[in-house]
Amino acid sequence: MTSAKTATPSDTAAGQKVVVIGAGIVGANVGLALLDKGYDVTILDRGEPGMGASFGNAGGIAVSECAPVAMPGVLKNVPGWLMDPLGPLSVRWGYLPKMMPWLLMFLASSRKQRVEQIATNMATLLNRAWDDYDPVLKEAGLTDAVFKKHGAMAVYRSNASRQAAEYAIDLRRRNGIKLRDLTGDEVRDIEPDLAPIFACGVMEEDWGHVLDPFKITTGIFKHFLDRGGKFETADVTNFVFRDGKPRAATTDAGDMITFDHVVVACGAWSKTLAKRLGSPVPLDTERGYNTTVPYHDAKLSRMIVCADDSFVLSPLEMGIRVGGAVELGGLLAAPNYERAKALFAKGKEVLPKLNAEGGTEWMGFRPSMPDSTPVISKSPHHANAYFAFGHGHLGLTLGATTGRLVADLMATGKTPVDMTPYRINRFSRFYSI
Questions:
Q1: What stretches of 277-355 show up as alpha helix (H) in DSSP?
Q2: From the CB of residue 302, how many other CB atoms can be counted at a distance below 10 Å?
Q3: Contact, 21 vs 249, CB < 8 A?
């Protein structure tokens, strides 16, 4: 594999100005990969780099998570989501009318044949994640001290709940994911501080986690700047077109920033800009909540996926993070931190030594597509526009891979994988365009 360090700059890239909109983990990786190709790259963001979903996520490098959120039989869960505002996945009633198109596409993606396709498509990306990250991390000086690769453990309260997950586990195994079944005794041997309430578990062997998601993003971003990349604080609102192509970004401050190529990579805020470029897309946001507390007496050696209750425990540099719930409620509604409190109560049941003293609550916006598949795509309308968003729970995991693929698309149009499943217009039949 050609690493980022040994990549040869493209002759055609020399002097070409690229604007990347979004300074999260995806945007930072895209910018860095484009520098490797020889482009002159400026990243734009309305806020500080890494302060969106990249700041407070669970920190997982979840390379085993190729199964989509919408699995066969998900339809029977919808009434419960609507009735339980503190459940693992809920929908705000007031947002439901706006969410309906997304939910219908979500349900359409849960058909078994479609789920099988999605899992294969996602495994194609996820199976590359470590190889694509390795050169980036080495060059940026982000070593094993902050980036751990020692698996995650999914735990089940009963053999029945483990059996209920068999299809999803088998689906992942058939797509090259290494999973190892554990007895209840093995679960307790690996993580003795967990409550003795688990009948069995599954070790997800290639999973990893970072000790501070924000430090990883800002570390890669700093490396981007050290390599000659540029950053401007700007809230992009529209584009200026010349000769049928976007040639400049306009901002809420009235500025105009010119470019030869543009990449929209601003997470949950990408929908409006994609539409400005002629590509309406069913992107919405999964509002995720968590609580991070100092370690006190609790200890964990790796991430714990509490499968029955759909949340995770992450051992991070600053403490243990309890999070993972999904709320479908858009970008504007105020946070409901009762969700974070409900998650923490479940976390304390699983890890009794958790102590809320000194803890902080957080809510972030996961940019999510109905089929749990990111958009990594050239524009079907403009030869100089590209998209990199919609990674859902896997933005950190797929950051480097997305950067590599976008850079390949721009420089040569030749990529190591078939990009058809990740195209932005895969839902175009739902739109009048």
A1: 338-350
A2: 20
A3: yes
Non-local CB neighbours of 318 within 8 Å, separated by 6+ positions: 212, 292, 294
Q: Are the C-beta atoms of residues 70 and 115 closer than 8 Å to each other?
A: yes
Nearest partner of 395 among 22, 42, 70, judged by Cα: 22
353 Cβ contact partners less than 8 Å away, ≥ 6 residues apart: 193, 296, 297, 298, 299
In tens digits, the chain (433 residues) has pLDDT values of 334 444 556 667 778 999 999 999 999 999 999 999 999 999 999 999 988 888 889 999 999 999 999 999 888 877 776 677 777 778 888 898 999 999 999 999 999 999 999 999 999 999 999 999 999 999 999 876 678 888 999 999 999 999 999 999 999 999 999 999 999 999 999 999 999 999 999 999 999 999 999 999 999 999 999 999 999 999 999 999 999 899 999 999 999 999 999 999 999 999 999 999 999 999 999 999 999 999 999 999 999 999 998 899 999 999 999 998 788 899 999 999 999 999 999 999 999 999 999 999 999 999 999 999 999 999 999 999 999 999 999 999 999 999 999 999 999 999 999 999 999 999 987 654 3
How many Å from the N-terminal Cα to the C-terminal Cα in the chain? 39
Q: Which of 374, 266, 278, 375 is nearest to 19 (CA)?
A: 266
pTM of the entire structure? 0.94
DSSP 430: G
Find, among 103, 388, 40, the residue nearest to 230 by Cα.
Answer: 40
